[in-house]
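Input.
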Amino acid sequence: MQNIELKEFQINTVNKLLDATSIGDKKEVLVQAPTGSGKTIILLSYIEEYLQEHNDYIFVWLTPGKGDLEEQSRSKMTKFLPTLNSKNIQDVLLQGFESKDTAFINWETITKKGNTALKDTERKNLYERIKEAHNNGYKFIAIIDEEHLNKTIKAESIIEYMNPEYIVRVSATTKMNKEAEYIEISELDVINEGLITRALYINEGVSNANVLTNEHEYLLELALSKRKAIKEEYLKNNIQVNPLIIIQVPSKSDDLIQQIETILNEKGYSYERKNLSIWLSDRKENIDNIENNESNQAVLIMKQAISTGWDCPRAKILVKLRDNMSEEFETQTIGRIRRMPQAHHYDNILLDNCYLYTFDEKYEETVKQELGNNAKESKVVFLKNEFKNKVLLKKNTFDSSFDSFDERQTFNILRDYYIEKYKLTNNKNSNRTILEANGYNFKSTIENEIVQGKIVKIEEIQDANRIMIESKVNTSKNGFELRHSINVISSKIGMRYDRTRIMLERMFLRGRIFNRKFVDLTIPEFYAFVINNEEILKHDFQEAVSQKARQQKLKFEDIKEIDWKAPEMDYIKYDSKMKDPVIYEKAIYIGYPSNTIKSNSERMFEKYCENSNNIKWFYKNGESADIYFSLVYIDKVNKKWHFYPDFIVCDKNNELWIIETKGGENSSGSSKNIDIKVENKFEALKEYSKRYGVKWAFVRDYDKNNELYYNNTEYIDEMENDSWNKLDNLFK
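Output.
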């Protein structure tokens, strides 16, 4: 896709869509995409990838509403994917469907009473064009955008006549359906990428001490005050954004609109001053360029959620006014204030959040729906005052867009790894025998394990019979399976799909220009080999590049050094079903609970900190976002990676410790650690400690006595080794 780089969660969603509509066994795919997740970009990237492998498919993209969402989506395809064929309803009626078309159609144009798209006219109608496409051997995939708005008998009858191979339904509020494949984009992933606000504040500053004479004026004053504060903060930080207030009023509320206009005019906001706008179905004033971050409009009045697809990321505040209690709360409008205006967070509590002011008693459930399925299992925690603006450590980071490594070196490391581990030679037949003896599958068919038998309860699957089925390789049909397997492997080594595929081909595929192949597979055999051996290939490739590297080779001139402060607020997931949770007083966040979702070693360490007289406070670090503490390590191929240690701890002597927790050993002596890069991280933390004079340790749990042990000398996986000592001996 031209001029756009997808976020990691967006790439993962594209890959899941490709899998679901190629190797999946369910006709319908439900995608729950939170507002602001880049739904259109995800779908366009998916279409691009799919049509690279299929010449006989047509996409029909169906959009709702009275607006022009279909043209917005189409224009994005034209901008980012100019080589692909796009059509609107008029193009389809005049020209019909052609190979690799994507037709953008608004439901209103085909289902509204009086339309001509479905009627018999001198030109062919939509039904005839669909039939014509079927006769030409084309297959359909239907994308139903905002699918919850399109569930009508007429709409479903059109889809039924189209008879698509797959139906992809997309919405922010899609509900799970056991008959469909379900793909959920985590709201936290979108937040961590900085695309949407960290949180929504509801009625901040509202006090029950006041006796209100005009609730509308009261809420407007709060909103205007909040806007002023946000505006000042933008200016202070030299950010060119003019924050916008959206005022949503009930449908039948002309008198209320006049009241609002009067109140706003008294406070300096009017249509004449060009800082007030109104957007109604029958009245629009001062809305030109309102979406631009620096536009002059400060307040927008509207009756209901503005047409689907309207984006104005500078909108930070929503005032939802009520006239009576029959009015439904528009969840779509919440999404309008959740986007970040520059698609990243500012690490500023005022600017990184959005604000809702309302006395509408129905808002609660609808807001929860808009915030997604995780709303009931996540909460915002706030930093204690003594830690605000306090620099704790020097954070290390790097610009991943410029991070590169030597492809030739990587290949040589992979090749040396296989030769050393499996004792491979130049004899391809012998190598095949050796690899087969070590678990590699060289069948020319693709194997799939399925459950056979009667299953009453889900837990019975563990005891059910399983049989292996095999299928012949079809390079067209199995192309996505191959892509999926290579993507799984490439994600583990931080290499692009195309490069990883080349590595595999150079080692295993016949005809690829390279004389020293381990085995000599035909193209169908290669497909089967990669797909059948996805897990072992993933393990071997990752183990090869993750071999212990000398962290001294890390060039610190390529590393950014930043003063790091704990975020003033953070999202945490917690287990609401855990019995008797307590609040950890030594956590640096107010109200931090013991039932946060984490590993056993992390949970044990938090409990240890809370109960230890030698610990003053602790901080649980996040896993991947830019706001969290990180350092940098390299792997065997000198590729740089970010490392986010689990905890920062302050002992009774006011010395800081960086602690990384790992899975320990079970009662039988087997390791519970699943991090294949553990040694590189260990060495990186050791080097960081030397560089900055900070204490550190790796901590693991030991099932035989249910104790925690530490190591800060030399990493040894076996915990019986003297390198591992009781944690009590560390903090004294």
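DSSP finds 20 helices and 28 strands in the chain.
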